[in-house]
Sequence to fold (232 residues):
Amino acid sequence: MKKHFISGLTAFALILFFNVFAATEANAQGILNQILNKMDEHNKALKSLRANVTMVKFNDQLKETDTTEGRAIYVPAKGRDALIRIDWTKPVQESLAVVNKEYIIYRPRLNQAVVGKVDAKASQGKGANNALAFINMSKEQLKANYTVRYLGQENVGSTPTWHLELTPKNATSYKLAELWVDGNGMPIQAKVVENNNDWTTVRLYDLQKNVSVNPKVDIPITPPKGTKIIKG
Fold:
């Protein structure tokens, strides 16, 4: 996992009211309010999540994309940031865990682990963490921090979704975010566009909600003895 995978993070759970008809500008605000209300409902109901994850990163200067695939585990923590673990399997094996605002990125091929505080990297706004950070946000947090716009209905693969655009109200290292939420109320794709026009898109699929997860066993990463520890 590259250094820019490290970033600020809360976790995953938003929601959407699914409607099979396209909305006009006149009723878009009403539908948006329904979407945000459903996001809150889904967020409260989601106790754990296991899913496959694909991340696509685009470098605007080089006009190149990199694709990474793996598995993600998410566990909300009441009154705290959620617990996250992502195990990347392609093109290389790397793992990321975030627990109590501390991250660890383990790179077995290099026999090294990068550790640090999430807050120290939060302003970077890059990587899978930032793209997925919107999942844990409440309706109030979204409205307070973003101008939210409903863009209409759009398929992600074969799945119909509502498409939302989020523009930060305050200065950040990214200028725009987008969310795609399926008919069950789960955001299955997020995109973050950086100020330099680089972007990251993260897609979740094969979702397993409210399944058994042991936060003390399934989330933390304990590198083997002899691993080089690097402060991030």
